[in-house]
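W.,

You were right to be curious about this one. When I first looked at the sequence I had no strong expectations either way, so I just let the prediction run and decided to look at it fresh. Below is the sequence, 314 residues in total, followed by the output.
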Amino acid sequence: MSIINISHAEITTFILVGMPGLEYAHIWISIPICNMYLIALLGNCTILFIIKTEPSLHEPMYYFLSMLTLSDMGLSFSSLPTMLRIFLFKASEISANACFAQQFFIHGFTALESSVLLIMSFDRFLAIHNPLRYSSLLTTLRVAQIGIVCFFKSFLLVLPFPFTLRMLKYCEKRQLSHSYCLHQDVMKLACSDNQIDVIYGFFGALCLMVDFMLIAVSYILILKTVLGIASQKEQLKALNTCVSHICAVIIFYLPIINLAIVHRFVQHVSPLFNVLMANVLLLVPPLMNPIVYCVKTRQIRVKVVAKLCQKQIY
């Protein structure tokens, strides 16, 4: 194991926290958390299975949904090991290298999900604004190319994080603020100059906000296009194709914005609130996105019900 050298001691591990003040109830808290992970895994695997096995769903919109599903699963599996160790086995220590690796994957999949949500908003605009050329513009090859670009862009964005954190010196403080490792949380423990991490961390957060603003611009353009449609029935039909995506955007960005506002403007906040909000950020999107798309997207809902009925018959 690589050792981080400091002037007073040698730190090889950091300490994660569960629910501050509720340590006695960690074993009970683990039950809903495990259930949320299992439901998220089942829901996302169901979405992937339905899209893969149904030729009628081999369209750009559903390919992008598959990318969102994969990013959700990556986000879940990135935080799963430490959360289960804390709540089930009361093992709160994590090695420095494992911590750096975990924050890389968490931030990478977060950036990937943000990028995919942005691409999905452009997809909806293109489908509504130019439906006749939609399939010819977004071919399977082009969708695959967009997905590859999003993947590399997201992980290259956060690639410097583990290396800049390894360069820092850490003093006696080694307790983190969450149940998993985050870049901004680890760098606060450093006793050496972390200016590079602060600047680059701000740049990474700015990229997420740019994605959010571009999504907002996409929906302004969508609304403008929809208002130009003569039939009210067609207007509602066009807007209905965006409902699932709007829900996914709200589910993903609302905890991020709330957490940013709390850190920036609220002086005294309960550590428990911070931990809850951070856990919501990683647990809720993978849990809710499959439910939202199954409920609000008729094509997926029909196929899921058909598969369930088919199994009951056999």
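Here's what jumped out at me. The chain is about 75% helix and 5% strand. And, maybe more interesting for your project: The longest strand covers residues 13-15.

Coffee later to discuss?

I.
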